[in-house]
Amino acid sequence: xxxxxxxxxxxxxxxxxxxxxxxxxxxxTVRGVARxxxxxxxxxxxxxxxxxxxxxxxxxxxxxxxFKAWLCAIAYREFLQALRRKKPEVEFHESAHIIAxxxxxxxMANRLDLAQALKTxxxxxxxxxxxxxxxxxxxxxxxxxxxxxxxTVKSHVLRGVAALRKQLATEDVA
Amino acid sequence: xEPDSSYDDLTAxxxxxxxxxxxxxxxxxxxxxxxxxxxxxRQLFLFGAxxxxxxxxxxxxxxxFNSSIFNVFDLKLSAPSFDISMADMTSVxxxxxxxxxxxxxxxxxxxxxERA
Lengths: 174, 116
What we know:
The structure holds 2 protein chains of 2 kinds. Chain A is an all-alpha fold. Chain A contains 9 helices and no strands. Chain A has helices at residues 4-12, 16-38, 41-57, 67-92, 96-107, 114-119, 123-134, 139-146, 150-173. Chain B is an all-alpha fold. Chain B is rod-shaped. Chain B has a domain at 38-115. Chain B is built from 5 helices and no strands. The A-B interface holds A 16, 19-20, 23-24, 27-29, 31-32, 35-36, 45, 48-49, 52-53, 56, 114-115, 132-134, 136, 138-140, 157, 161, 164-165 and B 1-2, 4, 6-7, 10-11, 13-15, 17-19, 21, 24, 27-28, 30-32, 34-37.
């Protein structure tokens, strides 16, 4: 089986089949990250698709290292762009945050799965947990992707993981 | 990678979620669709058919131009003939039919290649 780096070199030389193999190999991770960042499957697939297309255009700039981290960095930037495009809509619904909080509080009594538990985390914790815990990137890689200090990333991961465990334990008790 | 395995259980849960995603085939197809270049055979065929079409059209134009000049000289020598029969009207048909047939074949093949 060819490594990511070998496939990336072949893709950079214009071999579409090599890039397709990379898409096939990493689609679950990228879609998972996008789904956890956005909280919506439809938006997540749009962001994932945009991320892979950007990756294809910029495959020549990939300079080794973890290909998964490189892809996740692109997906994260696509997420931020999508967030900026959607911002006016979010600002218009100022009550959306409060309603969502109330809904999540009500849903705490019901079955709370991992995805729902993740949605209740503050955004920065959710980003760090999605990239570190779910996608398996290192703290340093996430620090480089998000441009947040390493200590901040570690702190967000710790708090996020603790909050997730607490919520999942509550779910088990319920 | 940093040696951080304090959340391996959560990582495994997330991995299960990812593998339970919708089948990747449709997603991979939608990603690769704008990336895949059209087949070189398709381009070759279209350029070839276009060239043949242009050649056929050019030869027709040159033929009709020559015949019109010839007819001008011919008028001085002999009276024009007006006995147009059905056979004369259909005499052009093979060429027209050939061109129409080629256009049809091109369209059919394009549709086939696009679907493929």
